[in-house]
Write a structure and sequence with these properties.
By secondary structure, the protein is mainly α. It has two domains: 1-158, UbiA prenyltransferase (Tetracycline Repressor, domain 2, Orthogonal Bundle), CATH 1.10.357.140; 162-289, Up-down Bundle (Four Helix Bundle (Hemerythrin (Met), subunit A)). The protein contains 15 helices and no strands. It has helices spanning 2-11, 14-29, 39-62, 64-69, 77-80, 87-108, 110-131, 138-142, 144-157, 163-186, 188-193, 199-203, 205-224, 233-255, 259-286. Helix 3 packs antiparallel against helix 6 (87-108), helix 7 (110-131) packs antiparallel against helix 9 and helix 10 packs antiparallel against helix 15. The chain is globular.
Length: 289
Amino acid sequence: MRTVIADLYSLLKLRIGMAIALSALAGMAVTRGPAVPGWKPALLALAVLLASGSAGAFNQYVERDLDARMPRTRQRPFVRGAFRPGPAWLGAIGLLLLTGVGLAYLGLGAVAATHVFLGAFVYGVVYTVWLKRRTVLNIVIGGLSGSFAVLAGAAVVDPSPATLPLLLAAVLFLWTPPHFWSLALAMREEYAAASVPMLPVVVGDAPAARIILWHTLALVAVSLLPAAFGLGWIYLAAALVGGALFAWRSLRLAQEPTTARAWAAFHASLIQLGCVLAGAMLDVWLGGW
């Protein structure tokens, strides 16, 4: 039973799903409007987790041939035979998505449900099926998945787009490429062996590291803008700390594009995102909105 639970956790990519759910909650927190009952944030998080879980499972179903070629992913359930691919799995994945989107529609409204669906669709179909094996822009466009989560949270409070959640959605969109490119640079040989056109595979380590740096600087600049549109010093301090760390690690990577520096930039990107999301919510809760 413990192994099955671990396999399901891996299959649904729940670690990523929790980050996406946190993004949705942050989008809801920074949106001004009438107070929402306490069950709505819980329902939002559940709906996003179910939808993102379906996208993660579909990703592993479709990419099981790629996963078998990469040491990092060879222990995923479909690759090692713990789960057998077939129509039943596709049906279960579809039901999971339908449940998440349906819960969002019934409890949170049509606009929020649409964003929940689009987030899963972008990752599961646009990124995984259409782009990943074809273009170096795969993860750039795939970054919209996290942006839709923010917009889903905002729509729970106000279906009309507002400046702060749009800025936070832009932060998620800009965050994804340097985050994933850092991982791809650290594991360039694996992606190259699997013929996946990630940026470091296509342009080389040094040019990719410079592009990561410039994207990171753009990300950090945009991440500071919410402080000019309603968020306060708590958010600004968190965004500055996280942004400075990611920018510094990206600069060091550009100076010396090694595997160790790439991993350092990758981990810094996680800290930066955590600072932005936590800072936004704490600023709202403690700042007297």
